[in-house]
Structures are given as structure tokens and as C-alpha cells.
Specification:
This protein is α/β, with parallel strands linked by helices. The protein has helices spanning about 15-25, 60-70, 85-95, 95-100, 110-115, 120-125, 145-150, 160-170, 180-190, 250-260, 295-300, 305-315, 335-345, 350-360, 375-390; strands at about 5-10, 30-35, 50, 80, 135, 155-160, 175, 195-200, 210-215, 220-235, 240-245, 265-275, 280-290, 320, 330, 365. Strand 1, helix 1 (about 15-25) and strand 2 form a beta-alpha-beta unit.
Length: about 400
Amino acid sequence: MENKAVILGNNYYIGLSAIRCLGINGINTVAVDYTEKERYGAESKYCSEKLIAPHYKNDSDAFLDFLIDYAKKQDAKPVLIPCHDSYLEVIDTRLDELKGYYLIPQTEQGLYRKVMNKDTLHQLAIEKGIKVPETIQVTDSNFYEKVDSIIQFPCLVKPTDSPTFVSKFRQKLFKVHTREELDEALQKAKDANLEVIVQRIIPGFDDHMYTFDAYLNQDAKVTHWATCQKHRQYPINFGASVFTVQKHVPELYQIGSKFFEAIGFKGFAEIEFKKDAQTGDYYLIEINARMTNFNHMLYKIGLNMPYITYMELTGNPLEPKAIQSETNTAFWYGYEDMLAVKDYLKTGQLSIGKVLMSLVRPKVNAIWDINDPKPGIAFMKSKVGKLISR
């Protein structure tokens, strides 16, 4: 009797990495998506089953019922691994019910959404003594005076619900330089019926972004962890990682483990920090409560987070482990890194020499793997097809 691993969201390389990390260990992997379109992750040779479910957002109850119906047919509870924020949000709405059919690390319904929501995360961090960027609510009294005195321009207009905002605007936030731009951004959010906050920009280039990646067991104790330093993001300055290097920063463990254990988090999560270029202080920016963009790099340096999750939940926990040396290994999403480099060069934030120097190190590709080529081929076919259609 084997517990299967059900991976939600395979049209992005996080899902692909989860399939590979589990399949390489002989785990039966089940790829669940709402459409066949661009689900290149399911092309992996390590994918055992492919399922099409109702859309997780357009018909979330039908989607969750689909998952439950599938689990009822299995001999053992499957391990559920969501690989996108939107899947995680939907799962959290009926977490207690789903745990009757699936093995899921988190036990407190609502905690996933609490750490994903910028507003509630901000309050949690303050309660636990973790630094966060100065933030004001749109509804605050003397709003503009506070923007001028506390936040100052340029500043960020950020959503409290990131997945919905990204789906609507195809970007993570609005960067505004004047009161006119601020008003325009607030109006866009209001028209889309989305709640936003206004936040100070912590000074420092993109290489001042760091992460604490950790797994917490069912006692809410950190058992596996590593820290990393971002080098490039796309879109530049306020986007997702496209080139990140493992870098041991003990201080991030002290801050991150303290916070996660204090809130009783269980399972894998990642804190994104920004180091203030002026003070050296680390500020909590956001939390990814599911497998991260550079999951496959973590696997290559010795932390197979999907497998760690699977083994603990099926009663065979792995020995604790931390990466406390410098491996010099980088995660590289070459396709979007090329787009990012173009913009970094255009804005004068990087030189071609510095970019080339950064590439001289061991790299783990986001998609391409010579031992599992079909996902990479499917991805490139999709991109070429789009270019031709344009």
C-alpha cells in the first residue's frame, strides 16, 4: 500500500521540480491541472498519472470535491503538494475537511492564508518582534501626510491578496513616484475590488534580497533549512527569482526559525527578506507557504523538500539537516533571466561583465534536465509557438 503524491499546478517549473524530486525516489506522482494547455511539468518521465480537475478558482468547491473523490478511491491517503499560491488559498478554505482524505503538513486552518496575506503577515511579524517595512493602510486617517512623512516617494502599493492581484495586473505591485501616480494606482486597485497597502521601499539593489527556506515538522520545529541570496529577479527589482545563489547567512536562521516556530507553522515555507543597504537590518518582505521557485536547486545541494515532506507525513521522517557551508550553487531560470538582464542593462543597474561573471558557477536549471528532457522540449515548443503566432 503506497501513499501517492498529488501535485497541484504543473504549468510552471515549481510543479515540475516537485514531480522530479519525488519521482526520482520512486514515489507515485499525480499531476493535477485544470487544463492541458502548457502543463509541461506533467511531461516529466517521473509523472505517474495526469488528471484534469475543475478550475481551482472559478469553481473551487467542485475542484475540492474532485480532490476528495480521487482520494476516496485510493488505498492510502495521498500526500497533497500545492505548487502555487492560489491552490494553497483554496485548500486552506476547507483544510480540516481535506485532512480527512489527504496528508497535509499544516494543521491550523487559516494559517496558510494568514501568512500569505500581506496585512495579517505584517501584524504577525510585529507581534513576534520581526522587522517589516513601514506600512500604512489606505483607510488610515491623515493618509497623505503619513505617506509624505513615514513612507515617502517612491513607494510601493502592494496587494494584501497577491495571487488575485497578479492574475489581474500581471505584476506583483505598483511602484509609484508621485501623489498622482499613487492616486492612479489606488484607483486601479479600487476598480478591481482589491485591497492594497502602501509600503516604504527598503534601500538596496536586488542582491540585497535573501531567503530562509525551511521545513518544520509536526512539532512546529525547524528540521531542515538553508539560506539563499537573490541576484536577479524578473520583472527586475520587484519580481520573482531568476538567478539565486545558496549563501549561508546564520542571522536569517535566527530570525526565520524564531518566527515560524512562534506562529506554530508546519511544513515547508520560505521567508523573503531584504537587507537594508544603509543599516544592515533584515526586513521580512513576504512568505511563500508552498514549494519555492528554486526548489530544484535546494534538492541539488541536499535538501529535497518535497521528499522531506512526503517522508515525514507517511511516518518515516528524515534526519534533520541544514546547509551551513557555501556550495556556490545557483538556481537559473534562463528564459526569464535573459529578459531581466536586458532590463538591468537598459537601466544601468548591471554591467555585461558582472552578468557574465555571475554565470561562472554550478547552475541548476529551472526546467531543462538532460535526464528528463520532455518538459524542456514542451516548454520551448510553447514559447516558439507563441512567437510564431505573434
